[in-house]
C-alpha cells in the first residue's frame, strides 16, 4: 500500500495512508533508522518499510506492507 512518511509541525514522524484517509504518528521503530524495518503506528498497525538510504528526504511516498498481528 502507498504510505506517505513525513514530519508534522511538532517534529514527530507520521504516516498517511491515502487509500484509508488515515494519518497516525509513528510510535515505534524496529531499527534505529526508519528504513528497511517495521514501524508501529499509534492505532496499532505495523508497517514494513522498504530499504532506503538513511539520508532520504521527507516527505516521501513509499510502498509499504501492512503486517498482521
UniProtKB/TrEMBL annotation:
Taxonomically, the superkingdom here is Bacteria
Q: Which Gene3D superfamilies match?
A: NifT/FixU-like (2.40.50.240)
BP GO terms, sorted: nitrogen fixation
| Pfam family for this entry, one | NifT
Protein name per the record: Protein FixU homolog
Could you tell me which species this protein originates from? Answer: Acidithiobacillus ferrivorans
Amino acid at each position: 500500500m502507498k504510505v506517505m512518511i513525513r514530519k508534522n509541525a511538532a517534529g514527530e514522524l507520521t504516516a498517511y495512508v491515502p487509500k484509508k484517509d488515515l494519518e497516525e504518528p509513528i510510535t515505534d521503530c524496529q531499527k534505529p533508522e526508519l528504513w528497511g524495518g517495521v514501524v508501529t503506528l499509534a492505532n496499532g498497525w505495523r508497517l514494513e518499510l522498504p530499504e532506503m538510504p538513511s539520508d532520504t528526504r521527507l516527505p516521501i511516498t513509499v510502498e509499504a506492507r501492512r503486517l498482521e498481528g
